[in-house]
Amino acid sequence: MKRVLLLLPTTGYRNDDFLAAAKKLGVEIVAAANYCHQLAPSWGMPPIMALHFDRPEQAADAVAREIEGELDAVLAVDDSGVELAALLSERLGLPGNSAHAVRGVRDKLAFRRLLRERGFPCPEFHHLPTGEDLQGLVPDLKFPVVVKARRLSASRGVIRADSADELARAVNSVRAIQSRADRDARELGIVIEDFIPGREYALEGILDNGELITLGLFDKPDPLDGPYFEETLYVTPSRLPRALQIDIHDDVARACRAAGLVTGPVHAEMRVNDRGIWMLEVAARSIGGLCGRVLTHSLGMSLEEVILRQLVAQPIAILGEREAAGVMMIPIPRRGIYHGIEGLADAQSVPGITGVTITAELGQIIAPPPDGASYLGFMFARAESSAQAENALRSAHRSLRFDIRPEYALDGATSPRPR
Which of 208, 297, 348, 389 could cysteine-pair with 326, CB 3.0–4.6 Å? Predict the structure, then answer.
């Protein structure tokens, strides 16, 4: 039986999906997690369940001390553990991408430098170190620009600015968000780059000995023009011309080679306009949240099963069903405390809707980008065409009414009605 060390984030959406795939394949899972190192011992958890995913060297040392028996592979469920998984694979002599390659694509500044060096279309960009005065950069900027935290994902810490005043506010906001979310924030600084016009697309793939296999190419039908960049809809197959889809595949494959990625899942995002294909990111992980479930029908198995099969060298036979499918990451309309939902049955009854999963917990504080890092939930659709799948998701979303209340009660205020 193959034995895989699985890095399970405590707030991960997909832990259960990976564990179910492992059970189906007969793969033994050795679980490691990032529970609080102060609380885990009181809960009776071993040290391997309280790793610092954001301190890969320290966490790798802890695994080396605690692990028993041989491993066949190491896998991170999401972005928070990919550097640790790569470092452990190197130390243990297991297959995987190098820690250097994974680190390079996680860092937006390093990735931009790589794209420029290798001749990819790349916006003008600038590094603004922590504490450095912004005013020295302003004369060199062409508005609009986008301010980005260097290692955050899911549009967290990404803000568009159309003027110098907006830029100053955006820089302050992104610095604050990054300082809360990344313990290395002070050393990292932030990135300011030209805004790239155009529609966004996403490619989900897997690398096998350096060769990229596209598992799905998604349209993002909603325009993502800012000031914040909350992703909502993914629909596949893409409605782009076939020749352009091939070009996207080739560009992602070339970017992977340039970055030194050779194996495992890849999630790439790009913008397309009349000047070409502009790579936004290439991540050494699979798509986030529960979005991977949208591919189950076309793959003939879950995305997690595909990833595990490749990891432990089991055969993969992709079904290749071409029925259209889509997923909506249900947007958070405003910051507050989640108190419930109405209209769920109506949404589930919309033709084409195959599932609605609400992942927000009652009493949870939620927030949209650029601050938030979670969703209210996910909706899934299948249809004869991508347009029909998109329409089903939009129709179902109109049926939902969320009760989100202020974090602090207002004097004399009554509880708001869901909307």
Answer: 389
